[in-house]
Design a protein that fits this description.
CATH architecture of the domain at 9-72 and 106-177 and 277-350: 3-Layer(bba) Sandwich
Helix content: 25-40%
Largest sheet: 7 strands, mixed
Low-confidence stretches: 405-409
CATH topology of the domain at 9-72 and 106-177 and 277-350: FAD/NAD(P)-binding domain
Radius of gyration: 22 Å
Distance between the termini: 28 Å
Number of strands: 18
Strand order of the largest sheet: 5-4-13-14-15-12-16
CATH class of the domain at 9-72 and 106-177 and 277-350: Alpha Beta
Bound molecules: flavin-adenine dinucleotide
């Protein structure tokens, strides 16, 4: 971004949600964009993701709202169930209001495809490579890739997700992790006639939770999460993880045995995540900026995709505003000023955080059930959802970043 006449070259790393969205907006604003993904091809994995609040406005601006609404998982709401499967607290999906089930629930792979499909042909896409070294000076960033290629860009924008390698290379000193003391495992299991269109959530004692959710491809998405201070589980081989999960869920009740059988039947779709949030004290440094989970991996709040969409839109919009003047620092400063409060409040969890959702004793389970019942009671449900869920807190006023020609249309 040194001269007005030459289109600035931007390297965007990570092609899930934030990266492709950013690449598309930047290309539209006249930047020359290269989009790099570490995997050999687009990644299809993942379960239901939510788009909440301001994320929907960004979908609208992307022209994606209709396509997204046509591909929802069909989740009818959230039910907290007893060991028998009988629901004792129900939060139906409501149009115009996000509850535990957001208005927009979509499979991550479907959403990623929709966003990636929007990346214009003029964006160079590369798969199967990643940055191994990066150094910057006031005019640009030199990167070396795993393939051995050495390239120079005007800007490096990192959208590599929560465990971003490039962030670790360049922002290690600014990064901290908030561990929530809970491990969560996901998998796809066979759908049976007993499965409904609800997200069914079961709390067992011993810090164990199980849940199942519908999808729109004929299977059921399940998760088992449990309190644990031992981080060795995440890096163990899948067979060992599944065996340990069996031991942990012994006697837990509900359909946990079926979920475990289902995980074992499809080990390729089984994966593990630590409930952890990434906090980076500054999202940019010189000519490098972070966006999406790489900047603020928001852990278990259900806001990751919303923040990625909003973040990509604002970052691209602010860079576009500075496209002629080339004041990258001003663009990065406004990007962070506009979003920091929103991101911070989205990273907040209800008092007690993830552990309060995983009580250790039977009494704790009963108390939590009482809270669920009160929160689901019609007259207080809306207020409870607003207090306990984070989607609308700290939402910024989204500037109108449309190019002058687009505004006239
Ligand atoms: C495979 C997968 C499954 C997921 N499943 C769920 C889920 O079930 N529920 C949920 O709430 N969220 C899930 N997420 C996270 C969710 O997509 C994000 O929270 C949110 O959409 C923000 O997206 P993001 O683009 O910032 O980061 P991510 O979606 O994490 O994407 C980061 C992308 O960068 C790529 N990448 C990583 N390192 C490099 C590198 N060094 N160079 C280049 N590319 C790199 C990754 O392969 C990935 O494509 C999943 C993410 C992935 C990648």
């Amino acid at each position: 971004m040194t001269t007005a006449s030459v289109a600035p070259r931007v390297f965007v790393t990570g092609a899930s949600i934030a990266g492709p969205a950013l690449a598309r907006w930047l290309h539209e604003a006249g930047f020359r964009v290269t989009l790099l993904e570490r995997s050999a091809q687009p990644r299809q994995a993942g379960q239901n993701i939510d788009v909440r609040g301001l994320g929907r406005e960004v979908l609208r601006r992307m022209g994606l709202e209709e396509a997204v609404m046509a591909n929802l998982t069909g989740e009818a709401g959230t039910r907290f169930v007893r060991g028998s499967g009988a629901p004792y607290a129900v939060f139906p999906r409501q149009v115009g209001e996000d509850g535990p089930t957001a208005e927009i629930e979509i499979l991550r792979g479907v959403m990623a495809d929709l966003v990636l499909d929007q990346v214009p042909d003029g964006v160079e896409r590369r798969f199967g490579d990643f940055v191994v070294a990066a150094t910057q000076d006031p005019d640009g960033v030199d990167v070396r890739l795993d393939s051995g290629a050495e390239e120079r860009y005007d800007l490096l924008l990192v959208a590599e997700g929560r465990s971003s390698r490039t962030r670790r290379l360049l922002f290690e000193g600014e990064t901290s992790h908030r561990d929530r003391g809970v491990t969560i495992t996901y998998g796809t299991i066979e759908r049976t006639d007993a499965d409904t269109d609800f997200w069914d959530w079961f709390t067992a004692s011993g810090g164990r939770v199980a849940s199942t959710r519908p999808d729109n491809v004929g299977t059921t998405r399940a998760s088992l999460s449990f309190v644990s201070d031992d981080r060795g589980f995440e890096t163990a081989p899948v067979a060992q993880q599944l065996a340990a999960l069996r031991r942990t869920y012994q006697g837990a009740g509900w359909i946990t045995e079926r979920i475990l059988d289902g995980f074992e039947a499809r080990p390729d779709e089984f994966y593990v995540q630590r409930m952890e949030q990434v906090v980076v004290s500054s999202w940019s440094e010189g000519r490098v900026a972070l966006v999406g989970d790489a900047a603020w991996g928001s852990g278990p709040t259900g806001m990751g995709t919303t923040l990625a969409l909003v973040g990509a839109h604002v970052l691209a919009g602010e860079l576009a505003r500075e496209r002629e003047r080339g004041d990258v620092a001003a663009a990065f400063t406004r990007y962070e000023r506009l979003l920091r409060r929103y991101v911070d409040s989205s990273q907040g969890l209800p008092p007690g955080g993830a552990r309060i959702l995983h009580p250790s004793t039977r009494l704790g389970v009963r108390l939590l059930q009482a809270v669920h019942r009160v929160a689901a009671w019609g007259p207080v449900r809306t207020r409870a959802q607003k207090t306990l869920l984070t989607s609308a807190k700290g939402e910024p006023e989204l500037p109108d970043y449309r190019l002058p020609s687009a505004v006239e249309d």
